[in-house]
């Protein structure tokens, strides 16, 4: 996973509320476990609507409750594969939010009026270390769990976090071999 410092560039506005994961990536495209190749199917059904346009910018601004519905990991994969690096919305479904952070797609919660202003600005800069979004001559701060921030700033996915403990795990296993299995008595 790539470390995240500052994400800057164009903003794509999708100010629809309650966008669920089946709308983000329909179920018929969930037959693979690779994380790549899903971007072309992003919002597949909506792409058939007349006038539909979804510019591939680094920042997606969405409506309330983005990523609701099933716990589909493929939804953040599709957004990332399409080219989005940050998703900004007034609220997210919890599992969707967590799935984003596990792959390095930055979910940012901002009030609705700030989301609209960012969408209207058309460009922005998401500064994760300083927890700030700058756009249109203004700035908005955002909160993020310190552990999630640490993982994203340092590019640490679950495997990287485990590998950081490799020496301690090796020591533990060596000690178990030396003294034998742990037994408990009731």
Describe the protein in words.
- This protein has helices at residues 21-24, 74-82, 94-103, 112-121, 146-154, 158-163, 166-179; strands at 6-14, 59-62, 86-89, 106-109, 123-127, 132-135, 138-141.
- The protein contains seven helices and seven strands, in the order E-H-E-H-E-H-E-H-E-E-E-H-H-H.
- With 186 residues, it is α/β, with parallel strands linked by helices.
- Helix 2 crosses helix 3 (94-103).
Alpha-carbon distance between the two ends: 45 Å
Instruction: Let me know the largest β-sheet.
Output: 7 strands, mixed
Uncertain runs with pLDDT below 50, 5 residues or more?
A: none
Q: Helix and strand succession?
A: EHEHEHEHEEEHHH
Q: Determine the oligomeric state from the structure.
A: single chain
Structural class, by secondary structure, is alpha/beta
β-strand percent reads 15-25%
Radius of gyration, whole Å: 20 Å
Shape: globular
In DSSP terms (H or I, runs of 4 or more residues), the helix count works out at 7
Mean of residue pLDDT values = 93
Strands, helices and their partners?
Elements: E1 6-14, H1 21-24, E2 59-62, H2 74-82, E3 86-89, H3 94-103, E4 106-109, H4 112-121, E5 123-127, E6 132-135, E7 138-141, H5 146-154, H6 158-163, H7 166-179
Parallel strand pairs: 1-2, 2-3, 3-4
Antiparallel strand pairs: 1-5, 5-6, 6-7
